Amino acid sequence: DCVGLDEHVSSVRLLNERYGASTVFVASDDPHAAGYIQARMPGLTVVAVDEYREVLEAMDKTKDTWTENRLREGEIAAGQLLRSTLLDVLLLSRARFFVGHLASNLSRLALSLAAAHWGGVVPFVSVDGPW
Length: 131
Prior knowledge:
Order of helices and strands: HEHEHHHEHE
Radius of gyration: 15 Å
Strand order of the largest sheet: 1-2
Structural class: mainly alpha
Distance between the termini: 17 Å
Number of helices: 6
C-alpha cells in the first residue's frame, strides 16, 4: 500500500529544516501529488515531469488498477511510460536529499544512483519503514 502524501510532506519538512532546499521534485503516478505538496509547502518550488499528465488524470478515475496492468491493457504507451520513468529516476538521482517509498525498486535505484553521483549516501527518509 502507498503511504499518504502527508507523510511525505512531513519528511520533506524535516530534511528541509536540516539541509535546506529551494526545489522539491515529485515523482508520482498521482496527478495531484505535486499540487498537494506545493499547497502545504508554499516556500518551496515543487516540480514534476508532466510528460504523461493527461494519462495520469484519466488513470486517477480508477485508482485500484496498477500501472503494470494498465501497460498490459494498452492504456499507457510503453515508450512514453519508459521515458517518463527514466527521467524521474534521473532527476531523483541528482537530489541532495531523498524522501521516498523504499519498498519501490525505482526509489531504491534512485537513492543508489544519488549516492554514486554525490560520492556517498545522501540524507534520506523512508516513509515505509527502515531499510
